[in-house]
Amino acid sequence: MTGAYLDDLDRFKATYFDECAELLAVAEAGLLRLSPQNIDLDEINAVFRAVHSIKGGGGTFGFSQLVAFTHEFEAVMDRLRSQQIGVTTELVDVLIQANDVMARLLTCARDGLAVPAGLADASASDLRRFLHKEASGPGAPAPQPTAARKAPVPAARSFVIYFMPKSDLLLSGNEPAFLLRALKRLGQAEVVCDMGRVPPLFELDGESLHLFWQIALTGATDEAAIRDVFEFVVDDCQVDIVETTGSADGGEEEAFGVFEENLPYVPPGQLTVYEAGAVDGAQAAPVRPEGGPGPGSGAAAGGGLGGHTIRVDLDKVDRLVNLVGEMVITQAMISEQLRDVPPGTLQQLVEGLEELSRHTRELQESVMAIRAQQVRSVFSRMPRLVREVAAQTGKEVMLATSGETTEVDKTVVENLVDPLTHMIRNSIDHGLETPDERETVGKPRSGTVHLSAQHRSGRIVIEVADDGRGINRQRVLQKAVEQGLVPAGAGLSEEEIDNLIFLPGFSTADAVSAISGRGVGMDVVRRNIASLGGRIGVHSTPGVGTRFVLSLPLTLAVLDGMVISVGEQRFVLPLTNIIESLRPRKADLQSVANQCDVIMARGEYVRLVYVDRLFRIDGAIGDPTRGLVVLVETEEGGRLGLVVDEVLGQQQVVIKSLESNFQRLDGVSAATILGDGRVALILDVAGLQSMSRNTPARAVPAAALPAA
């Protein structure tokens, strides 16, 4: 084999495995929604098609063990969709396990590893058991010896197939020659190629396909087997199949006569009307008459797909994001250099820089849109987890989700799986009561875990809530004292007790089980969320339930911020948090119990937070009547007033992780590089709020304030 052929084969395999990952997800989602109380034939058909597609591709590449197993899987799904087998909980469990085995077989095939001995034996045996159980059921005929059960050899049948691929078929990694060879394996095939639409040489695009084929096929096969050949290109071509008499007295000759006139062959009763010029136009699309869809109806035959997609290595996108970030920094440096230029000087350069700034912003937004991904990809994994944990704990659990279409940076999405897994396991194991306990207290026997996502204040907020027993604070505090995590007699608030569950090594489980008891789950959650520049809070009401709230940045690359100064230091405030800035009068300031200052802003008292006191910055003004108060909105909807020296201006900044390069700091979410080369810290409003509560800012003495 030539090197080019092997490269193409590797590329086709990579495409196949990418598609298999999506098909596995489709199959698992469909199986998880399947139950004796919820039988949806559309879902069953979707699962069948996914398994069938995996089997077809596996056969093309010679993955014999994968094909053998998926054949058993496909047989059960076929019986299920034809309603020859009833849906039971046991059957659904077996099918979910079979999907897992299929995934492992695909992993071995992808990585070139030998399949472990007996990997699929148990699952295949369970699948065959359901097939045998159905065959041996009431009213079923007695099983016959294998030789007697063999179906009679079907008689030879003749078909004419018109294969008309779209011009971009090659770009999807499909090769028409492979499809034609597969058809030849079904019987005796005569292939004729139509070159009537090949453009002149100087107009020819080497990546576009302009050839069509008509195949006369005779053999012991049927239309379903022929359509299976085109399973992977059904959306990229039009395939018309008509069965002929198989004689040479006119049927096939008539079809080929039409073909030779460069007109697509149309089976009787399935009329497709083509627009004028369709024979010569490379982009001609069939126009269906009203009243019938015609052959290959739908997206595959209509010629008008909603859009085109390509697969791109994520590393390439990451490099592009980094380059855009460097562009933003460079553009800010140039703007900084031109800030002191007198008005009217270098006017063309200033205008060009403004134009560059607009283009840079558009480029950044476009690149971030490429990385944006819906949290649906993470949420879709949770029903399987809920099902397994509920079975292990003997509880009845329903999972409700909302906000699955909320988009966030792909890096954030990928790191959400582990935290959500631990929190949902914790909610089911520790939060929800057993069905009998829930019935005793007047609750439904089935508990509910609600998983939601939404955008709030420029961040993504994900909540995991349950309607269980809530946190038993007395037990939590007792366990923490027993484990030496807090001293005996410590006077902790309810919020502080709730947060004890995040301490390393803490667990309220009496015994270690497969689900909990080792004290690592919630600690892992907090560390993973903190590594993303996020935070987690817990809100619990005894007897009502518990709610975990995760707050994460929408992106880890670029944000719009307002640069502020405090003393000699520069900070960046996320623009989405800022409401307004003002300079209060002396009469607007009030002291609360000599612990903090508040100001009256638009009819509401707002707590003042002195940034210089929180970070111990010398040389700051520290007086709101001479500096500025920046009103910011917290994630809970409240407001804070940050006392700063000056607001320097709005700027788009590149986010640099502080934790990975230095260490985590309270009140700081990340760092950035300003246009003058200085490093500035990006402030975390919620962190500042927490710091101000723990470190009260004393009121400014009245004598120190100037007259209003």
TrEMBL record:
CDD domains: CheA_reg, HATPase_CheA-like, HPT. SMART domains: CheW, H-kinase_dim, HATPase_c, HPT. Residues 558-694 form the CheW-like domain. Residues 5-109 form the HPt domain. It catalyses: ATP + protein L-histidine = ADP + protein N-phospho-L-histidine. The keyword Signal does not apply. It is an enzyme of class 2 (transferase). The modification Phosphohistidine is found at H52. Pfam families: CheW, H-kinase_dim, HATPase_c, Hpt. Residues 305-556 form the Histidine kinase domain. Its EC number is 2.7.13.3. InterPro entries: Bact_Chemotaxis_CheA, CheA-like_dim, CheA-like_homodim_sf, CheW-like_dom_sf, CheW-lke_dom, HATPase_C_sf, HATPase_dom, His_kinase_dom. Keywords: ATP-binding, Chemotaxis, Coiled coil, Kinase, Nucleotide-binding, Phosphoprotein, Transferase, Two-component regulatory system. Residues 346-373 form a coiled coil. Involved in the transmission of sensory signals from the chemoreceptors to the flagellar motors. CheA is autophosphorylated; it can transfer its phosphate group to either CheB or CheY. This is Chemotaxis protein CheA.
